[in-house]
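Sanity check record (used in CI):
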Amino acid sequence: MMHGLDLSPYFLAVAAQKEEKLSRPKPIRWVHANGEVTGLSSDSFDLVSLAYVCHECPARAITGLVKEAFRVLRPGGTIALTDNSIYFHVFQELSPVLFTLMKSTEPFPGRVLHAGFGGDDEKSGALLTFAPS
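Expected output for CMV 1a interacting protein 1:
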């Protein structure tokens, strides 16, 4: 069963309403919880996806999100992080002032690399896949 989790009751309601229109045979279970402390069972998911979340969070919260993702992940499972990248051509084409501002407020890529992960394709920005170095 697929689960969708968010801290915002509003966005969960919007997601549930959009999903209802799709009439899927296996509906998504929507969970209102903090991603750092989900209350979900350990070792219970094959895939955990954090999509456009980490760039909005302070370092402490990112650490909590990743720890919780590993806790609920089954052995051999996958964590997919999708987020903004300063290497993406759209950001590269910003004026120097805006690019510097964006880069200074988006420390996530640097923190991931500093934590010992290496990017497979750091320059393209279209897709960054991280694997333990």
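Confidence is low (pLDDT under 50) at residues 120-133. If this sentence no longer matches the regenerated tokens, the check is flagged for review.
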